[in-house]
Amino acid sequence: MKICTFNVNSIRTRKDLLIQWLMHRSRDIDVLCVQETKCVDTEFPSTNFKTLGYNSAVSGQKSYNGVAIFSKPPLLEVKKGFGNDYLDQQKRFISAKIDDITIINIYAPHGDERGKDKFNYKLDWYDHLLTYLKQNFSPDEPLVITGDLNVTRGDIDIHDPEAMQDIIGTMPEERAQLEKILEWGLKDSFRELYPEKQGFTWWDYVGGAVWTNKGMRLDYVLCTAPVLKQIKSVEVDTWPRKRREPKPSDHAPLIATL
Questions:
Q1: Chain-centroid distance, C-alpha 15
Q2: Would residue 89 be called left, alpha or beta, if left means φ above 0 and alpha means ψ between -120 and 50 degrees?
């Protein structure tokens, strides 16, 4: 099984690119979790992916946020949101059971400068995610949390740690929130397999950053120990990021092979 996370930065804008990429890979992706779909559910292009053999579950909103799961196997026990009216106004959480693994697809808040409302919201959102895990899951069961977490774990995850110190995505408070999630009982699959390797998943559109690999690692496949034992590889596929037409997302897909 190949599980992929990909921040598409608008599913309607990136639909053709996404289809081209899936065909380029001979449709070998079994489960595809996408973020920043930026459209309401009724406008989501599910039919285009159904023809490629994918079932879909979506949770979207107009112009912002939005998450979806595509899956060749059936999607069972689909849940949209935390069940919290305030947090669920922003569509950032969807989960489903696929075979014997629960997969949670999230788009974490981007945040803002320290002390701003969006900065505090990001920290609160992570607190709620941790509470949700404690109330609903055990580290002993097969669980994957994947998506754009909008945090770099450490300096190895940014191309210029000195220049990018204490900016959004590298602030100690943000990193501490991610570490709390991991301490609950999750493993960062990429870092577990490749302790010293850089694997950026995001590059700014400005200045051709992807061509000089000036990026950040913002996208993750986190998993419990039972899943980690099954993971054979985790790779970043830059093929869709390095397209000139159709215009790419600023992220690249991250793929875990079980």
A1: 17
A2: alpha
pLDDT in tens, 41-65: 999 999 999 999 999 999 999 999 9
H runs (alpha helix) in the chain: 11-24, 46-50, 117-136, 172-185, 189-193, 225-228
* CA pseudo-torsion sign 62, 63, 65, 70: positive
**Residues 250 and 205 sit within 8 Å (Cβ to Cβ):** yes
Q: Selecting from 3.30.420.10, 3.60.10.10, 1.20.272.10, 3.40.50.1820, what CATH number does the domain 2-257 have?
A: 3.60.10.10
Query: What's this model's pTM, rounded to 2 decimal places?
Result: 0.97
Contact 175, 152 (CB under 8 A): yes
Whole-Å CA distances, 103 to 18, 41, 141, 146, 160? 21, 20, 12, 7, 32
**Which residues form the catalytic set?**
107, 148
